[in-house]
Specification:
This protein is α/β, with parallel strands linked by helices. It folds into 3 domains: 43 residues, no CATH class; 170 residues, TPP-binding domain (Rossmann fold); 82 residues, SIR2/SIRT2 'Small Domain'. Helices cover 42% and strands 13% of the residues. The chain is built from 11 helices and 9 strands. It has a 6-stranded parallel sheet with strand order 3-2-1-7-8-9, with helices on both faces. Strand 4 and strand 5 form a beta hairpin. Helix 2 runs antiparallel to helix 11, helix 3 crosses helix 11 and helix 7 runs parallel beside helix 11.
Length: 316
Amino acid sequence: MRVTCTDSSDSSDPAESARSDESSDASDKCDKSIECKSLMNFAEPDAPGAAQQRLVTKWEERIAVTSAVKDLAQTLKHAKYTVVLTGAGVSTESGIPDFRSSRGLWRNMDAVRLLSLETLYYQPEVFYTKGLELLGTMRGKKPNAAHKTLAWLEQRTLVDTVITQNIDGLHNESGSNRVLEIHGNLRTSSCRDCRRETPFEFLADAVKEGIVPPKCRCGGIVRPNVVFFGDPMPPCFDEAVQVAQKADFMLVVGSSLQVAPVAHLPSLAKQLAIINLEPTPYDSEASIVIHDRAGTVLTRLLEYIKAQDNTGISMG
């Protein structure tokens, strides 16, 4: 659109000519201004969703989201049955040492010896003093961001089952409902003979009173419901194998994947992703690999999914 300002009168008066020149200059300026505004008015509008996409981009920059986290969010959304396998690395940010890193618990051979079936049965005094003290360092901790995010993902139906190698019970405490504790737990203890189950405190209180080994009312020895070196795997491990076979996606979080038979589980899932601070034997087989802390990555994942929800833009 172009608008022209002109004077139609015919005058030979110099003053009028000067005014006419000024009017012409003003007209040109007017023309350019109106033309500029007109071009702005007719500029092509944003494509549908462009404003929302810019908002998402700002969110991504704010939470330092990576392409791997985006891929993980999309995979979780499209998977029909997702299983999460967690190891000690998911609990280190709760103050519990891991097992196989350079500072891991199992690097200390005394820890391996203390928490073994042989020590439990043949050196009960050692097991129920030093061994129980070591187990006590894993009790009374609080769930961290990784545990809470996995529970949130379950509530969103993005995670179906959590298989954990950890005995700290933090997945349950964080709100996860479908948890398979394949190495046992520190909530309960049981009699070796009659299998009667009691709270872990029953065992701990007996030891404090000097009753070593602690005894059941049937006379049998009471032990923690933990899978120690030399123990068979519990019945829930069979269920873990079944859900791993059912899974079209498995997310491994904080596990070195070096402990048999648990290390076999990832090979049963159709697609694999790994979040672990250090490399694992399965890295080359995973479609997504992130070497970082579990809490850091899962927090970014949670914030990214929430950002998608808030803007109404699909994850893909």
